[in-house]
Design a protein that fits this description.
Elements lengths: L5 H5 L18 H4 L23 E4 L5 E7 L4 E8 L8 E8 L6 E7 L6 E10 L2 E5 L3 E6 L8 E6 L18 H6 L5 E4 L13 E3 L5 E3 L13 H11 L3 H9 L2 E3 L26 H15 L16 E4 L4 E5 L24 H13 L4 E5 L9 E2 L3 E2 L14 H13 L5 E5 L5 E6 L12 E5 L19 E7 L14 E7 L6 E7 L4 E7 L7
Parallel strand pairs: 9-10, 10-13, 15-16, 16-19, 19-21
Antiparallel strand pairs: 1-2, 2-5, 3-4, 3-6, 6-7, 6-8, 9-23, 11-12, 14-15, 17-18, 20-21, 20-22, 23-24, 24-25
Helix pairs in contact: 4-6, 7-8
Protein name: Alkaline phosphatase D family protein
Pfam families: PhoD (PF09423), PhoD_N (PF16655)
InterPro entries: Metallo-depent_PP-like, PhoD-like_MPP, PhoD-like_sf, PhoD_N, Phospholipid_Metab_Enz, TAT_signal
Length: 531
């Protein structure tokens, strides 16, 4: 997110230390079902059978495959069983890896040859690798595989979790928005980035504007900005203290991408920090450590846990109606700047990723091509007084800077006659809908399209940003707070819902606010442009 983070930039030495770890959570620990030893290294666990206290999750599920994730409290062999029934009759067994300290005791087991369009029940068992008879209690989960034919699809999207110091609040029951989303029974959740806030320490208490106090569950790793691999791992582990999130992830598979706060606010490759909170000033070093932890704590097909140079961008096929193109607008970008370059081949995606995206879109035969961007296109997201963080840069004229790369992509989509492209994003901590049309634009060589914004999940809200007129956006809907860093206790927590009808192929977008209200609805017709 491009806004300055008030808490993360000023917390300094006020965050709790080792003795304060988990202070403030004890009164509600039963309700939140916090894993024991949450902030401790698994090597400190008591003797006994292996346990998986951080839940299970599935990721990148297709019509025939998926990934299952778990974290153990010590070295253990991961085993997965799958079945068409909850009774696990005729279960199939998948032998997983031995998890250990090299991956922070996390592991992923790939599942292949699954039936299309079916509910799959799974359970994960951890066994002592030296004595397979010593096993822990199985953890259960389920997911639906993508359909092999035209069947209705539902997915949700959002992002921005535990930002600006607003963490797991036991007084509010934790991250209750995940329980609200779980009840909608989506086929998957598109997590659009800022899955953690590595640069936002979580203090024990935060003063609220109305004079009240926001209480946080805290851990040692969240007491300062993340710099070491252990601290980045602890940031990802922090969110798994929440029982709502663990329950959600056991039922709803994810498609995950990253944005800036997995490392730090507004970062770009090659950046050298001028921030007294950091001893490590080289952002590339921080990003490599974060990417490793990110790959360990999320099941992604393109990111083996040991591959620090792996890629986040990929396409996830979800049956004949839907392909999801997951972008990485962080790893390959150039430095943030005023964005007035007349030649900019690197842009925000890098040349290699742009070539991949153009080719992948051309090859797609799905009715809908969802482009999951971790930053919005036409919102001018500032980085300081003169630079810009995203694609737009407040100049409504012909494309310049990173806009040149977007213009190239939009031109390709038009000339290849690629239909059904819709953009989904988060990052800005409010919700809105933008329609881009060449009749209103300075650059006209593209077909009209929609972009939808949602989030945050549990973070501060921020005022709406200005539109950049280069690609002719209009904004039929926006809801944003008037003040920066509005706390979640004042509302303003958002997620989006997308339903694709298996018969008509219509795609319906609903922008929702926590509490159940649908704020805005848009129905798009398949195979058309200019809607």
């Amino acid at each position: 997110m491009a806004h300055e983070d008030p808490i993360s930039r000023t917390t300094g030495g006020t965050a709790p230390g080792r003795r304060a770890m988990l202070r403030g959570s004890l009164a509600a620990s039963a309700a939140l079902s916090l894993p024991a030893l949450a902030g401790a290294a698994p090597s400190q666990a008591l003797s006994g059978r292996p346990e998986a206290k951080w839940g299970v999750q599935a990721g990148d599920v297709t019509a025939s495959s998926g990934l299952i994730w778990v974290r153990a409290d010590r070295r253990a062999r991961m085993q997965v069983e799958t079945s068409a029934t909850e009774s696990f009759r005729r279960a199939r067994t998948w032998r997983g890896p031995v998890v250990g300290p090299d991956t922070d005791f996390t592991g992923v087991t790939p599942l292949r040859g699954l039936p299309a369009g079916e509910q799959v029940f799974y359970r994960v068992t951890l066994a002592d690798p030296d004595d397979p008879r010593r096993t822990g209690k199985p953890l259960h989960g389920s997911f639906r595989t993508a359909p092999g034919r035209r069947q209705s699809v539902r997915f949700l999207w959002s992002g921005d979790l535990a930002g600006q110091g607003w963490g797991i609040n036991p007084d509010r029951g934790g991250y209750t928005i995940f329980e609200e989303m779980r009840r909608l029974d989506p086929d998957f959740f598109l997590n659009s980035g800022d899955t953690i806030y590595a640069d936002s320490p979580i203090a024990e208490k935060v003063a609220l504007p109305d004079g009240g106090v926001w209480r946080n569950v805290t851990t040692e790793e969240k007491a300062k900005v993340a710099e070491t691999l252990a601290e980045f791992r602890g940031n990802f582990r922090y969110n798994l203290l929440d029982s709502n999130l663990r329950r959600f992830q056991a039922q709803v598979p994810s498609v995950v991408q990253w944005d800036d706060h997995e490392v730090l606010n507004n970062w770009y490759p090659g950046e050298i920090l001028d921030d007294d909170r950091y001893k490590v000033k080289d952002v590339d070093t921080l990003a490599a450590r974060s990417l490793r932890a990110f790959s360990e704590y999320h099941p992604l097909t393109t990111l083996p846990a040991k591959d620090e140079q792996g890629r986040v961008y990929r396409v996830v096929h979800h049956g004949p109606l839907l392909d999801v193109f997951v972008l990485d607008m962080r790893t390959y970008r150039n430095a943030n700047s005023p964005g007035r370059q007349e030649h900019d081949p690197q842009g925000i995606l890098g040349e290699t990723q742009l070539k991949w995206l153009k080719k992948a879109l051309s090859r797609s035969r799905a009715v809908w091509k969802v482009i999951a961007a971790d930053m919005p296109l036409g919102l001018a997201v500032p980085d300081g007084k003169t630079d810009f963080e995203g694609v737009a840069q407040s100049d409504p004229g012909a494309p310049l800077g990173r806009e040149l790369q977007l213009a190239e992509l939009l031109r390709h989509i038009k000339r290849e006659r690629i239909t059904g492209t819709v953009w989904f994003t988060t990052d800005v901590h409010y919700t809105s809908a933008q329609h881009y049309d060449p009749s209103r634009a300075a650059f006209k060589d593209f077909e009209p399209f929609w972009e939808f914004v949602s989030g945050p999940l549990n973070a501060g809200g921020f005022p709406a940003l200005k539109l950049d007129g280069t690609f002719g956006p209009s904004q039929p809907f926006v809801k944003a707070p008037e003040k920066a860093n509005t706390p979640p206790s004042e509302g303003g927590q958002y997620f989006g819902q997308v339903d694709i009808d298996g018969g008509s192929g219509e795609l319906t977008v609903r922008l929702r606010e926590q509490g159940g209200e649908v704020l805005y609805t848009k129905v798009l017709q398949p195979g058309r442009t200019g809607q």
